[in-house]
Every structure is written in C-alpha cells, then in structure tokens.
Amino acid sequence: MDSSLRREAYKRWRPMAALLLAAVLSVTALSADALNYPEASGKKTLKAKKVTADISNVSRGYFMIKHSGTSKKLKMILYIGKNKIEQYDMDGNGEYNVFPLTRGSGTYKIEVYENTSKKNYAKIFTDSFKATIDDPNEAFLFPNRLVNYKATSNAVAKSQELCAGLTSDEDKVKAVWDFLAKNMVYDYIKAATVKSGYVPDVDLTLSQKRGICFDYSSLYACMLRSQGIPTRLVVGNLNVAGNSQYHAWNSIYLGGKWVHRDATFAQQSYSEKNYSPMYIN
C-alpha cells in the first residue's frame, strides 16, 4: 500500500478507533461503578481516644473502624447482644478496616484491645449500635477484612474476564470454580508454617496460583462478590473419618438458597454434613 492510501485508510480508521476506545472505557467504568464497595461517609461515627468506628452504612451489612496509628497489635471483638460473633486482628495503620454484620438486624457491640506486653491486651474502645439490615445477604457482597479487594484488584479483573458474556449466576460460579480447580495448587509448606492472624491477599494468591484453604475461599469469595453474587467465607471444622481439622470454605447464594462449595477439595468433594461452621465472613 502506498503512502497516500495509508493516509486515507488512517483518516477513516481514526474516528472508528476513538469510538471503540470510548466504548471500552465506558464498559470498564461501568464494571468499576457496579462493584459493591464500602464507604466511610462519616455521617454516623463512634469515637474514643484514637479509634473511630463509621456506622453510616450498617443497614447495608457492614461497618468500618480504624485506629489513628500504632505499631502495637490490635484486636477487635464483635458481639450481637451478649453473644460473641468473632475476634479479629485489626490494622493500626490509620486506614479503615471493614467488618461484616453477618447476624442481620440487632444491637452490636464493638470492643478494641491494644497489646501492652507479650500476650496482654488493654481495652481502648467499646461502644454499641443498633443495625436494621435491609437485605441480610448484602453483607456478603462487599470486601471486608478477610475478603479484601478493590475495584482495581487483579482478582476482580480476572473474574470479569472469566465471566465475560455469561448471564446466569450459575454459569459465573462454574466459570470461576473451573478456573480455580485447574490452576490452583495447595501449599502444604504454608499450611505447616502459617501463623495466627494470617489474612489472605487475593491478588498474591492469584499470581502465585497456590495457597491454603483460607486463600482459596477468600479468592473465590472475592471473584464471586465482584460479580454481584452473595458469597460467604466460612471457617470451622472439616470432619473426615473421625478426624477433625480447622478449615475454610464457601457458601454461595444461588437460586434463592445458600449452596455449599469447597474449592480446596474441588477434585475430592465431601458431603456438607462433614462440615461444622464456626464463623462466617
């Protein structure tokens, strides 16, 4: 093709390319905007010393809490009524931590403890709030402390890639399941050396394509939540042949009910009756 023909072809292609780029950017923006992401609006807060809890969006099934900054270890304990729900490690880097309200509507109490020496902790914050949850499943659509991701996370992008063109939740769940089953490898060394307080990194798990049950279930939850599918990360015990082991798996809301899934044992499934849930995130 001579130079004059190339220039003419370029003139014709340039506006088309601009339209195509605009369409791609529009789809990308739509995907990011559609992602359920927590917000600390500051409309309703609880404060004491260096701790701030943002309860502006408890009706959507989550609250956010932060320490203004400390190098000491922090623990947050959440109750509903007088019943303890779970104890979490909490970052003290000045950034908000997101925690789900998994028990639906009720009166919740927050306690935050700061490490003082070795295994000793002192209470530095306690307060309560009443939550009226509009949709009890919505808590499992947001990232949180244990299923942590952003709109820009690689795991979210991978989920969008895997689910492109799929319209049913069932097909999306299967697409992500098949990807994990074919590409993930269980990390036995990590399982033997992991320390208390470990929190999964979904993008690191995705890039390394290996992890422990906690990594599998956190990544699976991330990839499905980013598709608008309520997904629980469940921690408890797996009981097989009289032996019980601490384990993590998922529960997915499909067809109007919660469906059990264990991506760690994708090739060797156990009956749901072998699982004893303790905590839900």
Can you describe what's shown?
The structure is a single chain. The protein is α+β, with helices and mostly antiparallel strands. 30% of the residues lie in helices and 33% in strands. It has 6 helices and 14 strands. It has helices at residues 3-34, 154-163, 169-183, 188-193, 202-208, 213-225, and strands at residues 45-48, 51-54, 62-67, 74-80, 83-90, 97-100, 106-117, 120-131, 185-186, 210-211, 231-240, 243-254, 257-261, 275-280. Strands 1-2-3-6 form a 4-stranded antiparallel beta sheet, with no helix packed on it. It has a 4-stranded antiparallel beta sheet with strand order 5-4-7-8, with no helix packed on it. A hairpin with a 2-residue loop joins strand 7 and strand 8. Helix 2 (154-163) crosses helix 6, helix 3 (169-183) packs antiparallel against helix 6 (213-225) and helix 5 crosses helix 6. It is globular, with a radius of gyration of 22 Å. It starts with a helix and ends with a strand. Residues 1-7 and 13-33 have low confidence and may be disordered.
Notable characteristics:
281 residues; alpha+beta; four-stranded antiparallel β-sheet; 14 strands; 33% strand; disordered N terminus
| Elements, N to C (H/E) | HEEEEEEEEHHEHHEHEEEE
Distance between the termini: 61 Å
Shape descriptor: globular
Q: Helical residue percent?
A: 25-40%
**Mind telling me the C-alpha Rg?**
22 Å
Give the tally of β-strands: 14
Task: Extract low-pLDDT stretches.
Answer: 1-7, 13-33
Give the structure's gist in a few sentences.
The chain has helices at residues 3-34, 154-163, 169-183, 188-193, 202-208, 213-225, and strands spanning 45-48, 51-54, 62-67, 74-80, 83-90, 97-100, 106-117, 120-131, 185-186, 210-211, 231-240, 243-254, 257-261, 275-280.
